[in-house]
Design a protein that fits this description.
Shape: globular
Low-confidence stretches: 222-233
Mean pLDDT: 80
Number of helices: 16
Strand order of the largest sheet: 1-2
Largest sheet: 2 strands, antiparallel
Radius of gyration: 20 Å
Oligomer: single chain
Strand content: under 5%
Length: 320
């Protein structure tokens, strides 16, 4: 009696997907694993159909790890320089992506990630503008690489510049993309740096809400019908941002749920890693050929400008 052999891709892809929920699997590794599999074996699963939905629910879950009272207080204290810095990055990003001829979706996502909070902001904006997988992949890949570099470089630079723990915490929160990397860098520098950096970064992360709503109403796309006429595409409403706020509010004002909220946050972080694996899987050789060095250079240039200007503002005392 003959036995039916299960194709290799139907074994390895579910195994790697399950591994995304293990602590050792970082977002960058998941993205890279999906990309390698996409280029070496065929993806037989309809992962693309679940990517945006999984992103949205991951954002909602991340809200369960926030304390709105602390974040709101810090956010009000620094609302001035936060607005200025976010607007400045958006303007600079727009000008640079036009100058460097970077694809609009990719350039916008890189700019959003640099301006607010890296991967979380990219995840929030992606379904609203209906960004294509390769644009999301390039933007997230750029952010994750720069996060890794910042994690290693920021503490030595801080000591070299003789930054106090509070100054270093502020600089990290303003110049490092993701909250996780801010926490990692500031913990290396000291307890006070970690407290300041984490709180300021969480307050900054709340700007995902107005920014996402802004793009939800502003960003319009069109498709061409059979007669060659442009037809508007209905933009998805960012309902998940309301879910993000609701989850944060519930955990904040019902203290008994905070431990459960922490568990939800961890699951959301893992599901975001799984989403990145799906995004990598949905890439193709033809798609990758469309992506050049320009998006990465855009991300690096924006990041360097933000890092230099913010540390200068902190040292001068404009940001405190």
């Amino acid at each position: 009696m003959s036995q039916t052999k299960i194709p290799f891709n139907r074994i390895i892809i579910p195994l790697v997907g399950a591994a995304c929920f293990l602590p050792f699997m970082s977002a960058a590794i998941a993205l890279l694993a999906g990309l390698i599999l996409a280029l070496t074996v065929e993806n037989p699963f309809p992962t693309k159909a679940y990517t945006h939905r999984l992103l949205a629910w991951s954002v909602v879950g991340l809200g369960a790890g926030m304390n709105l009272q602390v974040v709101a207080r810090v956010g009000l204290q620094g609302i001035g320089y936060t607005v200025v810095s976010i607007c400045s990055v958006f303007i600079l990003g727009y000008l640079m992506r036009r100058l460097m001829n970077v694809e609009n979706e990719t350039g916008l996502l890189i700019t959003v990630g640099t301006a607010i909070c890296g991967g979380s902001a990219i995840a929030a904006v992606t379904p609203v503008i209906r960004a294509r997988p390769h644009a999301v992949s390039v933007a997230l890949g750029t952010v994750f690489i720069l996060n890794s570099v910042a994690l290693l470089m920021f503490p030595p630079i801080g000591h070299l510049l003789h930054l106090s723990q509070r100054e270093f915490g502020l600089w990290s929160a303003l110049a490092i993309h993701d909250t996780s990397s801010v926490v990692g860098a500031t913990l290396t520098y000291g307890k006070v740096a970690a407290e300041v950096g984490t709180t300021v970064k969480l307050a900054r992360a709340l700007w995902i809400v107005p920014v996402t709503f802004f793009f939800g109403f502003l960003y319009k796309k069109s498709e061409v019908d059979a007669q060659g006429k442009a037809q508007p595409v209905k933009t998805k409403k960012p309902w998940f941002i309301l879910g993000f706020l609701l989850a944060a509010a519930v955990v904040t004002w019902v203290p008994t749920l905070r431990s459960s909220g922490h568990v939800v946050e961890i699951i959301a972080q893992r599901s975001l890693v799984l989403t990145l694996f799906f995004i990598g899987l949905d890439l193709s050789k033809a798609t990758l050929k469309q992506v050049g060095i320009k998006p990465f250079l855009l991300g690096v240039t924006l990041w360097v400008i933000v890092a230099v200007t913010t540390v200068s503002a902190v040292r001068i005392g404009w940001v405190h």
